[in-house]
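Lab notebook page, bench 4
Experiment: in silico fold of construct C2
Operator: M.H.
Input chain length: 160 residues
Purpose: comparison with the prior construct
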Amino acid sequence: MEFARAASGDWCLTGARAAMFKTILLTLDLEHEATWSKALPVALDATRAWNARLHVLTVVPEVAVPALMQAGPFDYEARLVPETKQALDGFVRAHVPADVQVHQSVTYGSIYREILRVSAQLPADLVVMAAHRPQAGDFLIGSNAERVSRRAHCTVMLVR
């Protein structure tokens, strides 16, 4: 293995093994800073260290609340996805440095299923996402992070 000192001063792997991660998927929830405050710096560092492409994904969760569905016809996806795309664009401009090339995606549906689908479609070599401390409900059905880490086709880095 060969190592070289990066611009940051850190030692980095070079040569054939340096291309370990070429496509990195960062997942976040724009309404909860805890989902990106620690994961974003990790994803940015990995993107720079591996000279990778960064994809940022946020999922608009599908509405499965019968009371809301009975309130009348309302296309949540048609209304919320464009609003979320606009919010994600603002987030990326505010938090991702200009020297990092980034692709943005907003999808609608089951959070963990959409993360798995997009990571396979890219295909991603690494998924970076925040993980919270397990709560009572997580032991019964599992968190999105737990589901993604169990089912993903690639490496998943959970950041706390």
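Observations: The beta strands are 2-5, 11-14, 23-27, 53-61, 102-109, 126-130, 155-159. Confidence is low (pLDDT under 50) at residues 136-141.
Next step: discuss at group meeting.
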